[in-house]
Each structure stands twice: as C-alpha cells, then as structure tokens.
Amino acid sequence: MPSTWPAYLELLERGELGRRVQETAKFLVDCTVCPRQCHADRRQASPQSYCHAGPAALVSSAFSHHGEEDCLRGWNGSGTIFFSQCNLRCMFCQNSDISWKDRGRPVTAEQLANLMLQLQEQGCHNINLVTPSHVVPQILEALVVAAERGLRLPLVYNTGGYDRMETLHLLDGIVDIYMPDFKFWNPETARELANASNYPDVARAAIKEMHRQAGDLVLDEHGLARRGLLVRHLVMPGGLDETRQILRFLVQEVSTNTLVNVMPQYRPCGLASCYPAIARPLTPNEFHEAVTIARQEGLRRLARE
After folding, report:
1. What is the pLDDT of residue 4?
2. Within-domain flag for 43
3. Please, where are the H alpha helices in the chain?
C-alpha cells in the first residue's frame, strides 16, 4: 500500500499529477487515447471520432450506487459517475441508451470535480468512474481540482477492458482500483459483437498492466476495497468455452488471487435480437456451469454482488 492513500495524493504533492494532465491532453489533438486510434481532433464540438466524444466529457448520471460488488458499495454506496459515448459499444449493451448515444450533459473540469466532491460528502466509499477509457484527459484534469479541494476517496476505473497501454501507463499511481470487464476471448466474437477484433489481445495486455500497477485486490478491516484488481466477466449464452479460456488466463497469467465477479445477468438488450446466438437470456444451468469452471480453473476468489 502506498504511504499516501489514495494513490493520486502522492502524485499531487510532487506535481506529477499536473504533468500527467498535460500528457493526456495531447491525445485530444490527434486522438489516440483508446485502442480505436481514431486520430480525430477532439478539441472540436463534433469530431469524427468513433465514440463521438468532443472536448468535454458527457456525464449521464452521478449517484451513490448500491448495486455494485460488496467491497465497493459497502453501506453508503459507491460514488458512481456514468460517462456517455463508450468506445466499445457492444451489440448487447444493457446501457445502450447511454453508450450508443450522446446522452448526458457536458461537464467542465470544475463541474466534474464538484460531482466527485458531492459524492464524497454523501459518504460514498469511492469514486467509481464508469466507461472512462475515452475521457481519461478530462478525468485527470478534474481530479487535480477535486484533490486540491479535499477529495480523499479511492478511484475505481470501471472499464470495458478496451484500454490502450500508453494511456494506462499515465494512470499508474493514480488509479487505486481497476475494475475491467473481460468480455470475449475469440477475435471473431469480438469483431461481430463489438466491432473490435483486437479486443482479446488488448484486454489481456491491459489486465496484466492493471495488475502490475495495483496488484491483487486488498480489502480493509471493514471489507471495503482499498487497492487492486477486480475483474468482471459477463457469462454469455452459449459462451462457456470462452468463459473457460478467460478464467484460465486470469489464473495462469495474472494471479490465482484475482478477485473475479462471474456475472449471471445477461439478457438480450440493445441489438442482441439481431444475433441468434445471443438473442436469449442466460440459463441458470449455464451460470452454474460457469461458476464450476471458475473453481476447476483454480480461481480462489469470487466476488459477491
């Protein structure tokens, strides 16, 4: 555990956090912040970027979330900030009204900092940044403002797992808790369902880097997450072979102590009805088999919601 906690406070004290803001701001001139590598000029209001994001982050909602994992929600909730305009856009997304559309209000760094501080005042246990991959520059700019004004909550980087390595390097020492999804193992599945055939390679590299930075998830005496990696995996209909490969990777190439949430709540949302293989809910038997696979592959820690 860092001597100063949350992690970003140490970088703030020595001026490094401000330097990281300047580094990530350069991404927006010729955008390479995520693996899409659009090279869009996001300083304009309507850039030709894959995510449609411009100079300001769009926030769909910010509230105390009591539906996250036990170690995040605690008793006062996780301080969740939902960003619109996801860079991944899965065909089955349960939040497609947010992720597929420019739905939300644009916020300045000051306004985003105020949201963080308001969630802290409400007693939330962390700041949970949902779909942050495309707005890292805006988040870091707001973080400096919030930390200077007294933000002391750990940051949760709640991502779809489609994160560029260079961007993650700039988050080293800033993010306390990484919470990526690992959605697909096969490139063809990723291409068909997220238009991202390189997703499996990107996610594997990103999760390894997240673990290198933060390690296995550490809980405090109250069972609250303080620092580390928590991986989510949504079990898909007919997707148990990919589930096994993903869980095997986490055990063999990340850590047997990786905390994993094997998630049963898949239902056909978004454009899922257009894809016969996933145009049905997950069955209870499929979920139970996924949990059995997790145990067979040697996972020691499964999260509870």
Report:
1. 58
2. yes
3. 7-13, 16-25, 70-73, 96-99, 109-121, 136-148, 165-171, 187-194, 199-214, 240-249, 284-296
- For the four alpha carbons of 286, 93, 63 and 25, in that order, the dihedral sign comes to positive
- Whether 3 is in a domain gets the answer no
The answer for residues whose C-beta is within 8 angstroms of residue 59's C-beta and 6 or more apart is 81, 82, 83, 84, 104, 105, 107, 112, 115
Both tokens of 255, joined, read 């850590």
Q: Is-cis flag, bond preceding 132, omega within 30?
A: no
**The 3-state secondary structure of 148-175, one letter per residue:** HCCCCCCEEEEECCCCCHHHHHHHCCCC
The encoded tokens of residue 24 equal 């990530």
Q: 40: helix, coil or strand?
A: coil
Give the mean pLDDT per block of 10 residues along the chain (305 residues): 75 96 93 94 82 93 96 97 94 85 90 98 98 97 98 98 98 98 98 97 98 97 97 98 98 97 96 96 97 96 80
Alpha-carbon distance 103 to 101, whole Å? 5
Residue 101 confidence (pLDDT): 72
* Nearest Cα to Cα of residue 132 among 177, 66, 189: 177
183: CATH:
3.20.20.70
